[in-house]
């Protein structure tokens, strides 16, 4: 419970300092927790150098249900160190930006410790920042430049794929409700934050409201190794198995049907040239695999004169290759209201649902394997029994308390139906608390 007490004490300190002045440590106007370095930080940004340091912590405790209902609390953490360089200001290179970012993850997952049957592969996670190893990683190291009045943008270097394709809002602690979905359902070829990989992409704004993007990224299993910090800084391409090629069409209507409020709609597809194993037939290999997706985000209402306050909605849907992918499809819908209180314009209330559907061909393989071992029904104790996976539904209700640009707290309540897609495991209730501090 040590992590929980630390987070609770921090919450009390924040609430107790509500009336701090703008120059004090816990001021609601404070951009960074460690301040502006006597004005030097702002001066560096004006010169083209922007530095970021942040810590994200996500605690979760099981209230009821799950595979093991013994109550515990697990905390996952992430440290991020980064810098962005405006090369127009620094070197006179017009429309050119560079960035470098390193991350370190640590902690444990409540889903792995209590929620899912340990014999099943995980689908969701109650803490979205858990995963890809407790190591340092070079998450970003790229350069982006624009041509033709910046209507064409070219980016190359080390990056995550959802930085530029299948990206979406993250207003939740639950993994299935946070950001793009491809890295959660085809993680063997699509790498999200914090994994960085060699890639390049080009975006062409061919009309004021329309942009077409095309990318190419390495498929290299060395990038997701987690044995040591050196694995997180692997820069060679010795074991590249192919390339993942995404294409995405994005529409940002200037005048939407919702009183002209902003929105973005994206339709995309990918093809991977890396060989992929068939999920049902042992030994069968396919030349590649493909996926399709739809992302939509729309502001529905505006509260008062503040253009950012109001109700937002997002939808994310993915259809994966049935021959080679365990998770055949995902659906996610989320609503959040920003600025629910007049004196808290940057707070928000969020509610979301996310569903992951396991491929029926995977279920057939699991059933036949169990039958070959003499099992005709769920066995809670046999170590060689493989639980049959179907679909998993995740629900989250939260309140985001944005004390200042430097400090965010997000208490949340989560419900997981059929953890890891196993209907014999009790539905679980989880209480969580996310905290982000920008230094």
Automatic annotation (TrEMBL):
One of its GO terms (biological process) is carbohydrate transport. Gene3D superfamilies: Carbohydrate-selective porin OprB (2.40.160.180). Transmembrane segments: none annotated. The keyword Membrane does not apply. It comes from the Bacteria. GO terms for molecular function: porin activity. One of its GO terms (cellular component) is membrane. Residues 1-22 form the signal peptide. Keywords: Signal. InterPro entries: Carb-sel_porin_OprB, OprB_Porin, OprB_sf. The keyword Metal-binding does not apply. Belongs to the OprB family. This is Porin.
